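hiii so um. not sure if this is the right channel but i have a protein structure encoded as tokens and i wanna go backwards to a sequence. like what aa goes where. can anyone help
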């Protein structure tokens, strides 16, 4: 979950990996990436699932002042657990590592990054 510094490589780029679960009715920090994403999705007429599990991938560019951020999320319902169940104090927290690992693996497979030839 949040707090651990983990990395993965996609398309030859190093990404920090961050995962979490959330319910749609959970309070979002004003101005956060999550608030921005929720607003963007809803503004386009899409509806979010009641509960989700998410992966945030962040690649720091060469000058460290720019970043590429990818947020991938899935409906949590197919796991049979709630966001609260899988949080650190939840009754199924011991199940999160396996669910999280599968989520990150699916994310890595679904994201495609290719280097563009320079002119």
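sure thing!! here u go:
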């Amino acid at each position: 979950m949040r707090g651990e510094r983990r990395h993965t490589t996609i398309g030859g780029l190093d990404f920090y990996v961050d995962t979490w679960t959330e319910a749609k009715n959970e309070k979002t920090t004003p101005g956060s990436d999550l608030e921005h994403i929720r607003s963007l999705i809803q503004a386009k007429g899409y509806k979010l699932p009641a509960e989700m599990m998410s992966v945030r991938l962040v690649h720091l560019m060469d000058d460290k002042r720019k970043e590429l951020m990818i947020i991938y999320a899935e409906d949590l319902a197919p796991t049979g657990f709630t966001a609260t169940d899988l949080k650190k104090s939840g009754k199924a927290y011991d199940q999160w590592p396996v669910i999280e690992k599968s989520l990150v693996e699916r994310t890595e497979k679904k994201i495609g990054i290719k280097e563009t030839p320079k002119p």
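oh and The CA atoms of residues 28 and 35 lie 6 Å apart.
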